[in-house]
């Protein structure tokens, strides 16, 4: 039974049990209808509670049903049925009450929550809006401003805040079921308090307009949030039933948008990345004690990430003095976490006195379960570090490198235990960014791979499996689409126009603003490293070398592509850049031409998708969805476009293949179509087809 009805004394107990998260499938909807009928037919019942089995209250509509023909009974009708009950119904909330789950609770006549429960309407993160009364019942219960905040931010409200704003009536620290039964007994025989009958708050059009204006800045290009604001405002000036009807109409319109499809692809892709056949049934090694080598940008971030996840961390630097410097930096980062409310001062003190130490001696790593190396990006240095690790690490310890580009197979050969060596490629800042590429070398043991994924889960990160090549999935693709942008600059486009066109497309930042943030020295050093392997027809971004030679390294020097000063801490365009670019083009004998924004996006995206196809075709990424998850979580790709491979499917692969063919007429060295893209485009296939096949 997905939904069960029993009676205890005068209370009808309705229990939803649909693991893992009690999503509202057709079975749950039908079951609730039957349970309500049973309640109202049960002469011995004077009130009811709705409980959920398992780890959470209802987490929302069943997302797997989206995009398929709707099946009766519809959720708004189920909730109307709950609200219409002549006997008071109490929702007893634990875990998370999200989306349609919260809407069920809003349809009940009273709400009681466990002290650690969380409540929210996250529909906009899926390109939707509340579609079962959330836009109409929530404002009646908590007021206009609080409801618009919850609906447009998708924020989860904790139980204490929910009580304060009137979203729940009571909070319980002890036994939720007992307290809910008691609450129901108190309400037994009373007239149910129906949310839809509460007077609607006064419509404040100015508030709605200001929220919509701010959404244009914070969520540009996204349709669901402003639509949700419209639904709230429009509905509140109508009778309740009509308000519900217009909400449903807007919800169904959003259901048909490409943004909804993209965001739900992202949701499932982020969960499917761990679903790999070679990990099935493979137990991870136990990891409690972590070693980190190198306490620079990445080592410090990795250490903090592990400490925040309650792991024990030993950091090794080059000597005691460097170790002390690294420890001071980590102390400051933990302090900032205290400032942001992520850590209590007591916990910080306990971490620093018990769980963390920084030393200059590799021997301290002898009992570590997993060691992550984050020293300079130089093969000789990494080889030395791994040879020393081989001497000190205990048998069975996982030895990981955080290298961005280097050959993990070669690093593994520096040890006598290549089966224990893996790449764990964190992103900067490592205690903030959620992506982790788990780089599997030729001889990495399966349980070491499983350990990489298990560690990611512990650190609350999204792990994606990657194979060994220069740059793995993300940085390899970045090198390619970045080269497409640089070629456009050489041929006449302005970096500012490229940044604008791509932020307009939805990227968090354009590539030249990103260069300034990372530092132009990083790209310069990478070009130096790759110079020996360069093909004569590779186009070198000489302008970037010039900026480097002028000491214009980006934000850290106040000037790179943009100028940064007190007046414009976020950067402004530099009028002198055009002259530098003209000079470079003249030196190379290039006659500059104009690019429009559409061509900029087409070239950048075609390069990204083409290299993504190559990465999948070469087996570096397991499936196209893995590429999407990397670009979404590590490279600022707009989530509402679903990732480059999903975006390509939505555009149509033949069009992208044609673009590449057209671009190749000017440069058939750079623009060579990936075999996978060519084949799929020719036979009417989609990248998405490969997601299905390989997961099954
Ligand atoms: N529908 C279907 N499946 C769902 C689901 C949903 N609403 N929510 C989670 N799942 C599935 C996941 O895909 C995953 O499946 P898998 O094990 O096969 O990969 C499994 O449940 C567990 O999910 P998580 O791994 O995410 O578990 P966590 O414990 O980390 O998180 C959660 C639990 C906070 C509930 C999180 O899953 C979540 O945020 N879910 C989505 C909630 C949501 O967006 N609800 C709104 C839906 S839209 C709606 O309700 C419309 C309404 O207004 C009409
Ligand atoms: P960094 O220069 O900030 O830090 C390197 C640290 O390693 C320094 O503190 C140095 O003293 C220490 N170190 C050097 N040799 C050592 C040795 N033999 N033993 C102990 N400590 C030693 O470098 P960063 O940026 O932290 O990069 C580290 C690694 O992480 C590199 O492989 C890099 O490619 C990779 N990486 C960097 C990212 C970034 O955005 N900075 C992102 C992802 C990976």
UniProtKB/TrEMBL annotation:
Q: Does the keyword Lipid metabolism apply?
A: yes
Q: Catalysed reaction per UniProt?
A: a (3S)-3-hydroxyacyl-CoA + NAD(+) = a 3-oxoacyl-CoA + NADH + H(+)
Spans through the membrane: none
Q: Where is the 3-hydroxyacyl-CoA dehydrogenase NAD binding domain?
A: 290-466
Instruction: Name the pathway it acts in.
Output: Lipid metabolism; fatty acid beta-oxidation
**Main location, first listed in the record:** other
Listed A to Z, the keywords are: Fatty acid metabolism, Isomerase, Lipid degradation, Lipid metabolism, Lyase, Multifunctional enzyme, NAD, Oxidoreductase, Peroxisome
Q: Which InterPro entries match?
A: 3-OHacyl-CoA_DH_NAD-bd (IPR006176), 3HC_DH_C (IPR006108), 6-PGluconate_DH-like_C_sf (IPR008927), ClpP/crotonase-like_dom_sf (IPR029045), Enoyl-CoA_hyd/isom_CS (IPR018376), Enoyl-CoA_hydra/iso (IPR001753), NAD(P)-bd_dom_sf (IPR036291)
3-hydroxyacyl-CoA dehydrogenase C-terminal domain ranges (all copies): 471-564, 600-688
Return the protein name. 3-hydroxyacyl-CoA dehydrogenase NAD-binding domain-containing protein
